[in-house]
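As a warm-up, study this chain.
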Amino acid sequence: MPFVSIGGITLHHRYSPATGNARPIVFINSLGTDFRIWDEVVSALDGEMPLLVYDKRGHGLSDIGGVNSIDDHVDDLCGLIDHLGLGKVVLFGLSVGGLIAQGFYARRPEGVEGLILSDTAHKIGTADSWNTRIATVESKGIQEIADGVLKMWFTPAFHSARSAELDGYWNMLTRQALAGYAGTCAAIRDADFTEAVRRIAVPTLCVVGDQDGSTPPELVRSLADLIPGARFEVIRDAGHIPCVEQPEALTALIRDFVASLADGKQTHG
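Now compare it with the structure written out below.
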């Protein structure tokens, strides 16, 4: 069933089981998107390992809910994982999804086998930048900022060669619930995991598109530097959402990371 109520919040999700011993991977998507951004990656990995995608509250087909902090999103994710009986998982968090993954680990480290933190950081942006964005979308709508956001999401090559997809992602962004979008902006504004990530003690891969305009490579590298033994990888020809722009490269990194977990190898890099 693609809908479940977690703590009174209805979440839209899709779970694909698999044979073998691989831990489930939970994909946590970025601000202003729904779980369709993972389609190509999930299609490539289907059957190799259990896969869970979901729309966080305030996005996609999930309830808007009241989003006040990253903890609200962590509550939902904990409940969804428990509902599905997944046990230990690998968390793949993109952008705000990476903050949610960091928050989940801080609360429930025993439930995490490994972390993939994509195009994210321990702290993203400033209070002023987020307050400005919130004020703009609340007064003029998400469409007011959409073109600028898409320039950070995707490379110039994507903009010039994949116009139909660009239109589709513009639609996805602007059709998110305003309250969910603004609330999640505030959650990002208030999140700071600078000290918490120093205590991460599971294999961690930090990955970023080389042309990410939202969380540039040097910011993601600073996150990797804080996490003991974290591996850092840059995906060429990608902006803020590599799972859309370079799914094959990202899928290869996921397979390699999961194989290192199964073999018990360290992920230092």
